[in-house]
Amino acid sequence: QVQLVESGGGLVQPGGSLRLSCAASESIFDIYAMAWHRQAPGKQRELVAVITSGGSTNYAESVKGRFTISRDNAKNTVYLQMNSLKPEDTAVYYCNAGWALHSYWGQGTQVTVSS
Fold this sequence. Notes:
By secondary structure, the protein is an all-beta fold. The chain is 0% helix and 52% strand. The relative contact order is 0.32.
C-alpha cells in the first residue's frame, strides 16, 4: 500500500507563490504517473498537472504557464510550484499515484488565495 503525504499548503495573497510537496512511502516514480488534483468547494475534483514515469508533463489549461510539476526521485517526492496564484486557485490539493488499476491518494492540503 503506497502512502502519499502532502504538505506546503496555506494562505497566500493573489499573485503570490506556494510550493506543494507530496512524499511517497516508497520508490514508485519509475512505474507510477504522479499527478496533482484539486477540489474547490461545491465543484468536482479536477486534474491540475501530471508527470509520467518517463518524465513527460501535462497541465490543465487554467494553470499552464503558472504551475510546474516536478519530482525528486532520490527523495520520492513530487512537487507543484504554483506562481501568480489567483483566488480561483483556492481548493484542496490532492496528490495521486496511478498505474494500471492501482491508484493512491494523499489526504489533501488546503490552498487559499485571498487578500
